[in-house]
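#struct-help
A.M.: can someone run this one for me? Single chain, 299 residues.
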Amino acid sequence: MEIRKREGFLGERHVILPTHTYKEVVTSLPVKTTYITKIGFFPKAKYHYAERALGSEENILLICLDGKGTIEIDNSLSIHLNSGEAFCIPAKKNHRYFADKKNPWSIMWFHFHTECRELYNLKTLQKVHIDSIERLVRIQNNFAELLDLSEKETSFSNLLCSSNYILLILTDVYLTREEPIDKQNKLLQQCIDYIHQNYDKNISLDDLANIVEISPSHLSAIFKKYTQKSPIDYLIQHRIEMACMYLKLTDLKLYEIALKVGYQDPFYFSRLFKKNTGNSPKKYKDQMKKIGMNNLIKK
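D.P.: on it. C-alpha cells below:
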C-alpha cells in the first residue's frame, strides 16, 4: 500500500487561521484585498500528498526550497516543481500535488485570497524560477515573518502586516525579474542550481566543475567574478542560510538541522555556524524568538 501524508512531517509548522472569528476584520479595507487562511512549512516532506477534487476556496502558493515534487491541474496539466521554483494553484481548480519519492521537496506554502490576481497573473498556470539567491532569501525571510504573525493573535494590526508580507512575497515571485545573463553566468547558475538541490550531500569543487564540464580553476574564477566567493564558500553560505531558515521555522534539534544541511558532525556545524553568523545556533534561535515577541502588536 502506497504511503501518503497530508501533514505530520518532522520539523513542520502550519497554521489554520480562524477566519470565521474575525470576519469583520477580513472584510474591511485594506485587509480584505489580500489575506491568508492557511500557511505552513514542510521540510523534506516524504510521502507528502494532497488532493482536492473541487479545488480550494483560495489560491495556493507553493515555493520549493529543495528536493522536488509534482503538481497536477484538472487531471491534465502536470508541473514538476524543483528547488528555487514557485507555482500558484488558482482557487477552485481541481488539483493534486505530491513530493518526489526519492528526493521529497521542502516547501513553504499558504492559502490566500487576493483581489490582485490580474496584477500577478495568477491564472497563467506557469511555474516561476526564482533566479537569484538574494531574491530567494528575501522571500524566505518574508515568509518566516508571515508564519510568525499567523501564530499570534488575530488583531487587525497583525492581519494588516500579514497582508503586506503576502504582497511582498507575490511581488518578489511574480514581478521581480533578473537581468539577462551571459554564458559564464549560465554556467554559474547551473552550479548554483545544483548546490540548491544537493546542499545536504557531500559536494566537492571537482564535482561542481564536472557538472559544467570546465576545469576547477576556471569555475573558481567565474564564482569569484560574480559572487566574490569561491564555489565551496558559496556552498557553505547556502548551507548556513538554510540552517538559519530551519532554526527560524522549525523546532528541529541541532543534530537534525546539521544533517539536513550536509554536516554529519553537529559540533563542527556549530563552529562553522558561529564563524559565519557571529552566533551559536542556539543563540541565533533565541534571538529570532525574541524578535518575534517584540514584533507582536498588541490589540
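A.M.: thanks! The two ends are 49 Å apart (CA to CA).
D.P.: also worth noting: Residues 39 and 110 are 4 Å apart (CA to CA).
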